[in-house]
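Supplementary Note 2. Why include the ligand at all?

Several targets in our set were suspected to adopt different conformations when bound, so apo predictions alone were not considered sufficient. For every target with a known small-molecule partner we therefore ran a joint prediction. The input for N,N,N-trimethyl-histidine is given below.
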Amino acid sequence: MRRNPPAPRASRPDATDWLLVADVLAGLHATPKRLSPAYLYDRRGSQLFEAICDLPEYYLTRTETGILARHAAEMAACVGGQALLLEPGSGSSRKTRLLLDALPGLGAYVPVDISRTHLLEAARALQTAYPRIEVLPVCADFTQGFTLPPPRHRPSRVVVFFPGSTLGNFDAPQAVRLLELMRRTAGAGGGLLVGIDLAKDPAILEHAYNDAAGVTAAFNMNLLVRLNRELAADFDTGCFRHEAVWMPAQSRIEMHLVSVRAQSVHIAGESIAFAAGEPLVTEHCHKYTAESFAHQARSAGWAPRRAWSDPRGWFSVQYLETV
Ligand code: AVJ
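The joint prediction is reproduced in token form.
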């Protein structure tokens, strides 16, 4: 008789979704005004992001899922049977299932996400679907580093799974630092399976971040709703508009909330002035070439081993090992 697996518990049970007031204020005083994209993911933001993944214009999730589905067996062979799989920014862990299906003997799965309720819902569903894999959720901002929870069985190695082109949210120096942090976390003999979105026709990119149904706009605007609720700010969402622009020199889409007129916003006892047309930058989404990514990865101590793509060459999943 098999016992039901215990419901997963986050390793920081008292942690909640959080906004760091000092960080928010620093971003609003910067030029240009800028907030961390991690703040987009409260519970509502995580739900809106799930809806984005299903949009006809948002090709990323569909394309990467196709690559994972087609090549799961080869990827699983790279990961190896008894590895510990660590996923920073795991969200709903939807794509992970494709890998887990090909890795029945996996040692443990550690999803890491900043959105606590979303993380625990996903971890519970996953534990039920994969009763033989130990699921150990960690509620954390993965850029800050965290301690790996000890698995019941000693894993053969640690492999980081970082799909979704989340890496694209980081500017080059930050991305290298994050890749170095992942290399240290994976340790000697560790691996990295990462999904990166590739540069393509700017019209396709701009549509992917400015969908006809307005879901991306709602996702972006939800940040202001969150600041109003959690930090008692007084943003008038009717006085900002969503914008997604392709910046060719930086090879990135920038998500902005543009102030439609001159206005002042109050937050944490401070008054922040916006000029008419002034953007608040909420996210950078860098688009790579196979070479630009390989260069970044190598400078962080990762050696590219395998790469998979889709027929249109829009997205790339790469497997790397520590050097
Ligand atoms: C989850 C960071 C990969 O950059 O495409 C989607 C987030 N923002 N639409 C991306 C996002 C607007 C997404 N990442």
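Residues 52, 60, 164-166, 168-169, 209, 216, 255, 283, 285 surround N,N,N-trimethyl-histidine (CB under 6 Å). Confidence is low (pLDDT under 50) at residues 11-16. Comparable summaries for the other entries are listed in the accompanying table.
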